[in-house]
Protein: Beta-galactosidase
Amino acid sequence: MMSGRVASCWILVAMVVVLSTAPAGGDTAEKGVTYDGRSLIIDGQRKLLFSGSIHYPRSTPEMWPSLIKKTKEGGIDVIQTYVFWNLHEPKLGQYDFSGRNDLVKFIKEIRSQGLYVCLRIGPFVEAEWNYGGLPFWLRDVPGMVYRTDNEPFKFHMQRFTSKIVNLMKSEGLYASQGGPIILSQIENEYGNVEAAFHEKGASYVKWAAQMAVGLQTGVPWIMCKQPDAPDPVINTCNGMRCGETFPGPNSPNKPKMWTEDWTSFYQFYGGTPYIRSAEDIAFHAALFIAKNGSYINYYMELHAAIKSSANPLLQEKQTILSLGPMQQAYVFEDENSGCVAFLVNNDARKAIQIQFRNNAYSLLPKSIGILQNCKNLIYETAKVNVAKNMRVTTPVQVFNVPDKWEVFRESIPTFSDTPLKTNALLEHTNLTKDKTDYLWYTLRFESSSPCAYPSLYIESLGHVVHVFVNNALAGSGHGSRNITVVKLQVPVSLINGQNNISILSGMVGLPDSGAYMERKSYGLTKAQISCGGTSAIDLSGSQWGYLVGLLGDKVRLHQWANLKSVKRSTNDAGLIKNCPLAWYKTMFDEPNGDGPVGLNMGSMGKGEVWVNGESIGRYWVSFLTPAGHPSQSIYHIPRAFLKPSGNLLVVFEEEGGDPLGISLNTISVIGSNQAQSQLS
Structure:
């Protein structure tokens, strides 16, 4: 589960090559973007495109020029980005295109550096983004069912899609207007959920395609992982091995495109990172090109070899030859355009010698060799030469002086403090509206008869629960990516008479995908007290009180101006550690230089961090991987958030940690040889 708040850069670093040749039948003066069964055709020229993704709100506007420049230097010619509905329309009819949400500025920066854009409007985008980019207010629209043939959803989807398209048109950003946008995407991986909506799924796909095409952008529309994409929308592949898994577009008149070549999987709390090998990425990218692919969003250095053979690849028909039980040759040849051959060894266990046109070529296991002029081996995917780098983290400040910290403790609300009361357990997000992660459930429990070894059992569909009895923490529990129901049984200390039970339900973001997302429920579903593990008193139907959010949320404690309005707690070293529901504040100066800056939160538990009022994300370093390590402990601070001195750091700690162990670090990358010399 990942938060859209994280202000860090998101790049699928893709080496991109645009290889241009005129389409069959000669040159043409036609401007804009068209396509046929071989490739996109831009301003009359065939294009073999490789693309990389930069999602604009995952970095700051100050970072955009450098990120785009670096990707261009690596060979990029197309940058893909999603459009994030919940950022741009946080409230119905109220739009935000400022700061990190300035989509127009981002696209104009891409244009200024001479690159193309693939604009993935969605407006459902998934993107490992909170709620898949859908604004939460959409759930409260009467009769709403997401992503199906549902009139309320279609109305708002068309309204927002039109808003984005008209904004792009007004700025002259489509290629048909001379701008950089050569492709637009409607929906995203709908084929994963279409069957759940039965016949309304198919009719929704048809409607979405017609709606998008009707907006007349002058550039092609695509649908990824959508085999039934209606003409003229192009269906594309997402995955790791589209050269093997993608049967191709659903019409011979559409080009073969790979919109997401997954170089990795996103990491979740408690999960270990997964990175594909460069050799595997290269093999499947080369195989896709060999099988008539003409667009890949991926990472590799394969582009140079392909660039040298642009003409035969784009102009000539493919010939497939069998060279062995697990070996093939894909040949593109013409006496005018030249010749290129892809020799494929699919055997993952042994190297093989291939005979091709009276020459012998040795290929390593699971490898593809590219023959320029169908003779000279200029590239082999299993011999990718990738520089090995090491990330170096250098502490520049440790916040280990107690007197430099101020601490503010959240009060634990009781039933009498809550403004809303009802005889039922209410659903978490119906009350919070995703404006805060937190909701208090409070209860008064009368204990009049002796209860031996009392314990409280609760079940929750939320992600985290913290149980307080008579103002003392009794226990905590959480789910995971694979455990959606939190089950917690904790011993409690009851007094004769009235006991105050306060349960804090916490979320770490909403799901990014799935069918019927609007029906999903969160928060407490069951509560009972038992005595000695025998008799149980069901509390679910008791009168509960509810309080949305934390006090620190309400007074916006993460901002400088409001810190003076809250009573400060002690900053004694022994008393600021291991405090649940505590806000910590300190100041720091910007490190020298212009390199990346990161905050090491390894000494803390779970919470959120702000720098000068800007959230740099939720942290959860106490949720360890199977190997016993945090999934993440260092959090990026964009330089744009910082000033030379007097920077405000605010930390909300949910579980209890040690702020004296937090450190400010600079991040650098060095080559493997340099790293070895430093270690020796």
